[in-house]
Design goal:
Blueprint (H helix, E strand, L loop, with lengths): L1 H20 L25 H37 L5 H31 L3 H14 L37
Length: 173
């Protein structure tokens, strides 16, 4: 009986991996150095514009990749330091500072690519592109962008602890 359960579990895992392995890439997720496929959805975009955008992304690729490569050892060092019984505050601070600087560089690089991409578009295309950017949030559709903002409490009423009871400053409600 136990061998049947193990065999069935193994079969399910292999099938799941096969399905995931052959799944098409999600639209809007860009490969390194290539513009997102969602740019093809911009009205009246030409192949020349797409080629210029692709060249732009390719030119930024090396800088972005080297920045990512620089981040990985820092992240590993931070993890190692934090696992020590008595991590050094100064080492952690230095690592976090450098990691923050790298994140700033990446963010500015992404902003630069976005602005340069925008300059390759017509006014109508820019308006569409801007709306796409607003809908995707800061990182794209796979990072929670595009979710509607709600005014007021969530459906079903406010959550626990959010009532209108007067507060006495004691921290107990």
């Amino acid at each position: 009986m136990k061998s049947i359960t193990i065999a069935t579990t193994l079969l399910v895992v292999v099938f799941a991996l096969a399905v995931v392995g052959f799944a098409p890439p999600r639209p809007g997720i860009e490969e390194h150095g290539k513009p997102p496929v969602c740019l093809a959805a911009i009205p009246d975009i030409t192949t020349e514009q797409l080629a210029a955008i692709n060249d732009l992304h390719e030119s930024h690729r090396a800088a972005i990749e080297s920045t990512h490569e620089e981040m990985m050892p820092l992240r590993d060092s931070l993890h190692e330091e934090m696992q020590k019984p008595e991590p050094s505050t100064s080492v952690v601070r230095d690592l976090l500072t450098r990691m923050s600087e790298i994140r700033i560089e990446l963010t500015l690089s992404h902003l630069e690519i976005r602005q340069e991409t925008r300059e390759l578009l017509t006014a109508d295309q820019q308006a569409f592109f801007d709306e796409m950017q607003r809908g995707m949030g800061s990182h794209g559709p796979h990072h929670g962008g595009g979710r509607p903002m709600h005014d007021g409490p969530p459906p079903g009423g406010p959550g626990p602890g959010s009532g209108d009871a007067p507060r006495d400053g004691s921290g107990r409600g």
